Amino acid sequence: MNFISIQDLYFSYADETDPQPHVNAVDGVSLTIDKGEFVAVIGHNGCGKSTLAKHLNAMLLPDSGKVIVDGDDTSDETKTWDIRERVGLVLQNPDNQLVAGIVEEDVAFGPENLGVEPGEIRRRVDEALKAVDMYEYREHAPHKLSGGQKQRVAIAGVLAIQPQCIVLDEPTAMLDPNGRDEVMNTLLKLNRERGITVVLITHYMDEAVKADRVVVMDSGRILTHGTPEEVFSQVELLKKHRLDVPQAAELAYRLRGCGVKLDKIPLEADECIKMLGEAMK
Amino acid sequence: MSCVLELQNIGFTYGLGTPFEKRAVDGVSLKIEKGEFIGVIGHTGSGKSTLVQMLNGLIRPTDGRVLLDGRDIWEQPKKIRDVRFRVGMVFQYPEYQLFEETVYKDIAFGAVNKGLEGEALDKAVRDAAAFTGVKESHLEKSPFDLSGGEKRRVAIAGVIAMDPDVLVLDEPTAGLDPMGREILLSQIVNYHKQRGTTVLLVSHTMEDIARVADRILVMNHGCPEMFEATKKVFAQGEKLREMGLRVPQITTITETLRQRGVNVPDGVLTVDEAVDVLLPLLKKEGRTW
């Protein structure tokens, strides 16, 4: 079922009076995201992926084209708050989005603003913290947590609003390998067990390969999209646009180029090992 | 080769004498040779940032000594400033530390404080800008008009302009996209090669470290857990994983094959190397040709 529908979206940061020629940050994007889907968006800095993300919960409004969230047009100002309850946004730097001195108060911030009654807030906060495995830390100070823990608290803060979709803009960019795994596992769990739609913007290809679908952006447009297998097997296209592919895929691609017969391009280490093992038999 | 930095049993405790005492670095002894490219890895809170801040006297060790060219940097505490010109430090997200009116002045700031002037200063600024790819046309612009990636290059140029003997970079590629990471890394490698400056690179991106470092220092709970050649460190995947670290995917692939009896050498670090070692094996099996 179609949850978000982006129709021929254009957006530019330039203001009308600026004599400079306009460069569109998003330059004609059409895309639909289904309910319960896990979509990864990759592309260079400046390719328009963050701008696109901010359109998904009416933080930015299209210059032309439409963004429809669960049947509502984001340009309809009477729907702005409904839309933001349905689509939560998590940003890159955990330190910029935690506001309270105690973890559980931070998570309660969203529902408090929505006027949710106290008993219900308590229930939602506990549940959200349990969902990201941070319940034990509910009385800790956020600034003393590790990066991965802080990001999970930020995700809990969004969950407490009970959104149907979470959009994350490079949530793991500042984390160490363990923190990255923690956040990624949390997102996969929320997606699979609760059916929450996830839109993950990332520079890490090992995260993108775990999504249902990968969207590659370049210069404000969609370069290609499809399952991780479909996208990352286009090694040449991605390399041409100087994007990364998982090392397993690159290895298989290069070996193929030297005449080794490999049926498909593997994305993960295990798969690659298996294929190479068989090729050597 | 001669030793440029030597740490003698240095340690650091935050909040010493208070109830919040925390031992961040504990008894580190090691030597870094002139011209080496060292990778520093470790999970968040492993003490790597505290350790590198002791190298130029930003933090004074609570015990032990830091020797720069054989002399204790705290021998004359009033002269600690000189050490900071010789051990240049690029912090995390340095683009937030720009403050001057123009890019040129920002890059020149450290060099001016070091005492450079006139032509020597101009040359230092322009060379540093060239190393990090700051465009000539940007030098007279306000640093605040640049993009995040450009600002970061200006910040790094500012440290390079002081021509330090040792350059320490704390996660210089964090938040950059794959292409930006690639470009910045090759600029650092290029600078290292041309000037022969000793470089310490702190990073969470194992693929980057694998490509550039001669040796890797692995920090864990405030102690150096390993300090060995890059190949040797990444051959110990299991041990690294226990410390919350990873090895590059390509190394995982070749190491697993090796453990299963395939004749590949240990410590394969890049896709290029993997292709070289795997191709003859796949060819020999005769199924592919």
Q: Give me the oligomer status.
A: heterodimer
Runs of chain A in which pLDDT lies below 50 for 5 or more consecutive residues are: none
Number of strands of chain B: 10
Query: SSE string of chain A, helix = H, strand = E?
Result: EEEHEEHEHHHEHEHEEHHHH
Specify the CATH class of the largest domain in chain B: Alpha Beta
* CATH fold field value of the largest domain in chain B: Rossmann fold
Strand content of chain B: 15-25%
The structure class of chain A reads alpha/beta
Helix content of chain A: 25-40%
Describe this entry's structure for a reader.
The complex is a heterodimer of chains A (281) and B (289). Chain A is built from eleven helices and ten strands. Chain A is an alpha/beta fold. Chain A has a single domain (2-245), classed as Rossmann fold. Chain A has a six-stranded mixed β-sheet with strand order 6-7-8-3-9-10, with helices on both faces. A four-stranded antiparallel β-sheet of chain A has the order 2-1-4-5, with helices on one face. The longest helix of chain A is centred in the middle third of the chain and has 18 residues, at 177-194. Chain B is α/β, with parallel strands linked by helices and 289 residues long. Chain B has helices at residues 48-55, 80-86, 103-114, 118-131, 148-160, 178-195, 206-212, 230-234, 237-242, 249-259, 271-284, and strands at 3-14, 22-33, 37-41, 63-68, 71-72, 87-90, 166-170, 198-202, 215-220, 223-229. In chain B, helix 3 packs across helix 4 and helix 3 (103-114) packs parallel to helix 5. The model of chain B has no long low-confidence stretch (mean pLDDT 93). Chain A binds chain B through residues 43-46, 92, 146-148, 170, 173-179, 203, 205-206, 242-244, 246-248, 250-251, 254-255, 258-261, 269, 272-273, 276-277, 279-281, and chain B through 43-45, 147-149, 174-180, 182, 204, 206-207, 244-246, 248-250, 252-253, 256-257, 260, 262, 271, 274-275, 278-279, 281-283, 285, 287-289.
